[in-house]
Amino acid sequence: MTTPTPKRIVVAMTGATGSVLGVELLRALRCMNIETHLVISKWAAATLAYETDYTVKDLRALAYKTYSAQDVAASISSGSFRTQGMIIVPCSMKTLSAVANGYGDDLITRAADVTLKERRKLVVVARETPLTGIHLHNMATITSNGGIIFPPVPAFYTKPTSVDDIIKQSVGRMLDMFDVDSGDFERWSGF
User: Fold this and answer.
1) 104 assigned ligand-binding residue
2) Does the annotation place 16 within a ligand binding site?
3) What is the pLDDT of residues 2-13, one digit of tens each?
4) Is residue 145 very low, low, confident or very high in pLDDT (cuts 50, 70, 90)?
5) Residue 40 CB burial class (10 angstroms; 0-12, 13-18, ≥19)
6) Quick one: residue 154, left, alpha or beta (phi over 0 = left, psi -120 to 50 = alpha)?
7) Which of 66, 62, 65, 75 has its CA nearest to residue 22?
8) Is 95 marked within a binding site?
9) Which domains are assigned to the chain?
């Protein structure tokens, strides 16, 4: 008898602003005992240091396993490594463009390409504003190939009182994309 595959999600962080979203997503997944496979780009590490008090070491401690962004031979670069999918949070427009165009020159974009080809869930937390036609075209390309574009737009119906409230709601909705309920944010219940 074969051992069932554990619930696994690949988490990638790029250099776009919003690194706290990736941190909080990793925390939530760890609390739910979901196996995370983390890739942090060089610019994600720089942005993390600029925007937060967290270190790359702190992030690695939240993940089940971590990989170098240059390690394109890592297990997550193969379709035979089974996962529930992948989330890129935050996702820069550079990475979004590479994913949209199948340019797998590092582990983040290779793992995203594998996720799409295996018809697994790819969630791209795109962080940029305003958007150009090029950005929108790349987003449409990813969507038409099965990916989900998830801009972290705050829900004001929750009447957030802090940035933490907004982050929790965004992370909770990201987890919803993988049918994982954090139970940690307010949902719309109607008027």
Assistant:
1) no
2) yes
3) 666 679 999 999
4) very high
5) buried
6) beta
7) 62
8) yes
9) 8-176 (3.40.50.1950)
How would you label 86-114 residue by residue, b for 16+ Cβ within 10 Å and e otherwise? Answer: bbbbbbbbebbbbbbeeebebbbbbbbbb
41 in a labelled binding site: yes
Report the share of the chain in percent with pLDDT over 70. 97
Q: What's the pLDDT band for 82 if we cut at 50, 70, 90?
A: very high
Q: Which of 65, 3, 2, 70 is nearest to 30 (CA)?
A: 65
Is 142:96 a contact under the CB 8 Å cutoff? yes
Residue 25 CA to residue 19 CA, distance in Å, equals 10
Nearby residues of 167 by Cβ (< 8 Å), 6 or more positions away: 20, 21, 24
Indicate if the pLDDT at residue 146 is higher than 70. Answer: yes
Cα atoms in the Cβ-side hemisphere of radius 13 Å centred on 123: 24
Q: What are the pLDDT digits (tens) for 6-36? A: 799 999 999 999 999 999 999 999 999 999 9
Half-sphere exposure of 45 (CA within 13 A, CB side): 11
Say if residue 93 carries a ligand binding annotation.
Answer: yes
Interior CA angle at 15 toward 14 and 16, to 5°?
A: 100
CB 69 within 8 A of CB 92: no
